[in-house]
Amino acid sequence: MMLDALDRQILRALTANADQSTTRLAQKLGLSQPATWRRIKRLQDAGVIAGRRLDLDAEKVGFGVTVFLGVKLATKGRVSLEDFERAIGAIPEVQTVDHVLGLYDYRLRVVARDLADFERVLRRRIMTMPGVGDVEANVLLSEERRPGPI
């Protein structure tokens, strides 16, 4: 699908605030509400807009620590990638599971109430999984979210 300048404006506006009404968005863009709605619907139907999500402040809901884990599988032949992804995805503290190329096979985003809670999750849930080899942890100090180029 080819995106024109107006499509990109709509995507930038929705990325900044996905909750805004089509009426409000139309006013910002100088379009009619029906034309704006049709464009958004076309972007959704084409899969450009894959969905909307709610971002929570992890700290305010009781998860004060975020850790990025690099996980290298020790025995790739004995544990399938799909089995690992399914098992690791069943751990509620694991927010994202990214299969990556490089030193590690996976990059995980893990939240915990505090460092002691993270240690419990790491030792009892992650390190005991079949096939887990080397693990490297990086504690998140701060995060700046930036929308990608549109």
Descriptive notes:
There is one protein chain. This protein is an alpha+beta fold. The chain is elongated and about 55 Å long. It contains five helices and four strands; from the N terminus they run αααβαββαβ. It has two domains: 5-45, Winged helix-like DNA-binding domain superfamily/Winged helix DNA-binding domain (Arc Repressor Mutant, subunit A), CATH 1.10.10; 65-139, Lrp/AsnC effector binding domain/regulation of amino acid metabolism (RAM) domain (Alpha-Beta Plaits, 2-Layer Sandwich). The mean pLDDT is 91. It has helices at residues 5-16, 22-29, 33-45, 81-89, 115-126, and strands at residues 65-73, 94-99, 106-112, 132-139. α2 packs across α3. A hairpin with a 6-residue loop joins β2 and β3. The two termini are 14 Å apart.
